[in-house]
Amino acid sequence: MYAFFDRETRTMLTLLRTLYLEEHWCSTEELMEWAKLDRRTVLKYLKLLQEIAQNHEHKGLIDTKKGAGHKFVGTKIEYRTLTFQLITMSIPFSFISDLYFLKNIDIIDFCEKHFVSDTVVKKIITDLNSFFSPYHIQLVVKKGIVTVTGEEVSIRYFAYLFFWGLFRGITWPFDSVISEQDIDKFLKKQFPNWTLTKKVSRSQFAFILAINLSRIKTGHSLSYEQLPPFTKDLNREVFFSTTSQVDFETLHSEFNLLFDIPEAEVDYFILVAQTRVQMYLLNDFLSKALDFHKNNQTVTFDIFNLISEQFSVKAKITDTETFNIITSLILSTCLAVILFPNFDTTITNYDYNNYLYNTCLLYTSRCV
């Protein structure tokens, strides 16, 4: 995720993350080897990192002692806050933010605003296009105006990963679109059962909805043609029949009071919510969802069967609660793979394969 940042930011992020993960004193030589940097560069950016931390009232987070080496001595929150500050200070971050919150970027205006040359911006565009290529996303420049093109669900999923990973628990970055208080109030009113999920999941739903609204605001609404063919039937049969949820038409009207959006956007938001394991543990949501995919022989069910057979879920797990959890895990991940085929991680940045493999092994081993 650091690949498209400038060298200075990327180097400081690498050193900071290395020190944070090691949790003990690291010699300059060790940092040189792990970060693939020479001594002069390591010492230069460690000093700069310490200065930035002090300027942001994080004095003493990076400790250096002769004979011992270097060590990060802060908390997890302090690490995430300093990471956040390093990234948001960078020009590439400002560029990405403008791509998502504005309809387009005028290169001349951007250069004047951030006191950089057009050469710097052109390099950012080149680096981003290289990074975005596997996700079928591209930045297009026409007459000095930059726009982002590609599959809309991929464009949004990258935003979920990027903004959630950076801002969660630190600040709300969508005030230009909608306030955090307004979106929390809306979600609690329209989806009362979701209050039973973990706080982190509810926060994710808020981020996802805010990013969706931002994309709609800039003229990038989704249509049903861009969603899986079973979307409408799945939501009507499962979501609206297993919760205390009002009917779809009423919900759509409530969404329009918040923001004018097409029906497909409401269905899309509900579908994305089903990529979260906890949704399947509400009421009889899991059994209804599984029955729907089975009866309609969806691609989701085909993938589900393959994974279930690989881990011999039915044979190894006899405890109902454990079986439901692991079934929910597989079903939600299958839906995520179908909805966001160009990515290989969950919104919380877990690799799909490792996430499924390690979690399934953990649960099945407990039952053997």
List keywords for this structure.
mainly alpha; Arc Repressor Mutant, subunit A; 6% strand; 3 domains; 3-stranded antiparallel beta sheet; two-stranded antiparallel ribbon; 368 residues; disordered C terminus
How would you spell out the order of helices and strands? Answer: HHHEEHHEHHEEHHHHHHHHHHH
Q: Rg to the nearest angstrom?
A: 23 Å
Largest sheet: 3 strands, antiparallel
Backbone shape:
globular
**Helix percentage:** 55-70%
Number of domains: 3
Number of helices: 18
Q: pLDDT below 50 for ≥5 consecutive residues: which ranges?
A: 360-368
The structure class reads: mainly alpha
Oligomer: single chain
Going across the major beta sheet, what is the strand order?
3-5-4
- What's the total number of strands? 5
Mean pLDDT: 85
Distance between the termini: 38 Å
* Beta content: 5-15%
InterPro entries: BglG_antiterminators, Mga_HTH, WH-like_DNA-bd_sf
Domain Mga helix-turn-helix: 79-163
Organism: Candidatus Enterococcus dunnyi
Protein name: Mga helix-turn-helix domain-containing protein
